[in-house]
């Protein structure tokens, strides 16, 4: 059947009935949250175990189980590989890997897939694992990709039924209270781990820094923790702070960032109380910096800034252009330091941040958002998962959630990447539906979703407005649209929308 | 064995290698597999265009657009065969004399990465450079690249110029006029004859290619050029602006670049240009990191009567444009001048005054210029 964004979705796949995407707010929840295991801890016994192996034995991990991780250690993470290696040595097989995201450092997983230790993945995949899975024939079931909010929702509902959550922590006490702020492997906010610890049957903390009770603030709480394992190191600090966080130097990209701020100015939203989602991509970082300069110059104080937290976001708080930071992921040392000492820098978890099946989430309160993407079509549907060659290379992050929540969702994107145009008749994969996207900002003009007549009226004469189809034609005149990639029939991944419906599927790439 | 290498493997560029062969061999190395077939058909089309059926072609592209690959292929094939193939000239409307030329952005004609986006920075003019920014051994291939850029890229509303080499007038013009630029910058202009020489060649190709009239911008950058400004300015009807080149001028007179040392050539240039009813354009500001210096110098030359300034980096453009933007008070006053003139016309009055001051022809002209710069007229 075809879903609301015109993508062909099978009715059923690997025994799972698929619900087609019907619209950003069209699908209501139809179940209760997962009932969780009632825990019991004998205070005379110690939660701190000698080895990972002992922990895995104690929680009774077996063939076919689901395990989860959080990705705050990003490309510096040692824990995923450490746990999978141990599981493999113990002879456990057929594991479903349901972490928040995988990075190039996790390339080793490919070996565990080949040997049958890992047979299913429900996680974002950035880089080599995604590329491997794209080839087809690798997993027992298609991978499932979810947004931050969508994953928190699925973990709570039990659609992702986690048996054991392995949680990396740079500081932890002997009862399992931990946070991400202190220690040699500090990474800042720990919000991606929270929902997992609440709903998993068992939670095992892996730490390289055991400290006396109580560790505060207890972001992950003792009430949900079963065991604690100490190791030499949970990660490589140089990989924790990813190298992507540099403001772009490209004049064309700087122009996009400046134009994005002009769009907000023209739309009349830059006034006291304004709130924004700042991205961590090069263009979004620049836009965040220019926005800060604008607010400062005009004496405007916003209410909150959310998203990947960087020193540019911290500047807003410290120089008074924003009242608060809501932080789900902390990217650099300046931001970690700010989280430690500034009470206005507030850590949030993914349910609070973005879960549509909740009493309300923070994305709904955003006036505007800077987002990116790999491709966009003439209906403003955005691809963030695959490249034009069909390879699955990126996770969804908060893209769907923020787009649905923010008052003005802006996609900041150059019209070309190398010899490939980014505006397409048809995108390789639909990640985020066009009905939730308002403005495309490029180096060659600003295209507003025709649905937003009000915005078009506000922006007229103030920013260089273009019709998205005209822009497409102008660019593809000298930057030809490539042929669609040759794809196989096998579905290698399901792209879920944040409400659990299916917005698209990814098919195998033929070489 | 004959081997021809053209282009580079730099970002957005492509390297073409041609070798003798007893059959047709095409080898495309691309990072984007989905583009391979498109690139192969482009290669085949160009080989056929040059009438070859036996050759080994190797293309290594690094995110190069089709116009870059075509330019590299054509130049390689031209060298391989010694042939010139007939091609259609691009159609572009002629430019107007009076349009604003506040900012002109120079871009090296041998750099595809910079060429592709040069049209997006809201400069009034773009200057695709074949001269100082292109090393001698790349002059030939840059000509082909600039021609294809002119034919294929989207420059929006910007006026497009090419700065040619005085040493290669014939070769440069033969190629780049196929791309029908709005105008030609004539560097190192020192006399009437320098302009006339270029004009003769341009006239010939204009006729042959059937393109619209090409405008001229002499660049004066020597002591002799400054002395001969009057004859240069009057040398051709095609001249719409004269630009000053401070770097070469300073070298020529053996001085040091400063506001004081350049005051004479600037003053003379602006005076002569205005006497001939053409625009006076100032030299580039070469320290890209010093935005405050750029703003200060641009404000000063604007007050002298200059109409524009050169930029060597896109980030300089918006500051230059802003310096030439009239202030709100100036725009308001200009509007009142125009209203007063209209009312006087209605009433049939000859002499007009505003706030007790006579409004004469120069005041009206200035008001018109301000409104044009402010985007109102």
Short description:
The complex is a heterodimer of chains A (511) and B (377). With 511 residues, chain A is an alpha/beta fold. Helix content of chain A is 26%, strand content 22%.
Greatest chain-chain interface? Answer: A-B, 23 and 26 residues
Total DSSP E strands of chain B: 14
Low-confidence stretches of chain B: none
* End-to-end CA span of chain A: 28 Å
Strand content of chain A is 15-25%
Low-confidence stretches of chain A: none
| Number of helical regions of chain A | 15
How would you classify the helix and strand content of chain A by structural class?
alpha/beta
The level of helicity of chain B is 40-55%
Helix content of chain A: 25-40%
Shape of chain A: globular
CATH superfamily of the largest domain in chain A: Glutaconate Coenzyme A-transferase
Oligomer: heterodimer
Identify the CATH class of the largest domain in chain B. Answer: Alpha Beta
Number of domains of chain B: 3
Gyration radius of chain A, to the nearest Å?
A: 22 Å
Going across the biggest sheet of chain B, name each strand in turn: 5-6-7-8-9-10-11-12
| Number of structural units classed as domains of chain A | 2
Structural class of chain B: alpha/beta
Q: Determine the number of helices of chain B (DSSP H or I, runs of at least 4 residues).
A: 14
Alpha carbon gyration radius of chain B: 24 Å
What does this structure look like?
The complex is a heterodimer of chains A (511) and B (377). Chain A has 2 domains: 42-240, Glutaconate Coenzyme A-transferase, CATH 3.40.1080; 251-484, Glutaconate Coenzyme A-transferase (3-Layer(aba) Sandwich). In chain A, 26% of the residues lie in helices and 22% in strands. Chain A has 15 helices and 29 strands. In chain A, strands 18-17-16-15-19-22-26-27 form an 8-stranded mixed beta sheet. In chain A, strands 3-14-13-10-4-5-7 form a 7-stranded parallel beta sheet, with helices on both faces. Chain A has a 3-stranded mixed beta sheet with strand order 9-28-29, with no helix packed on it. The longest helix of chain A is centred in the middle third of the chain and has 17 residues, at 251-267. Chain B has 3 domains: 3-81, Ribosomal Protein S5, domain 2 (2-Layer Sandwich), CATH 3.30.230.10; 103-324, Phosphoenolpyruvate-binding domains (TIM Barrel); 328-373, no CATH class. The longest helix of chain B has 20 residues, at 328-347. Chain B is of the alpha/beta class and 377 residues long. The mean pLDDT of chain B is 94. Chain B contains 14 helices and 14 strands. The chains are: A alpha/beta (511), B alpha/beta (377).
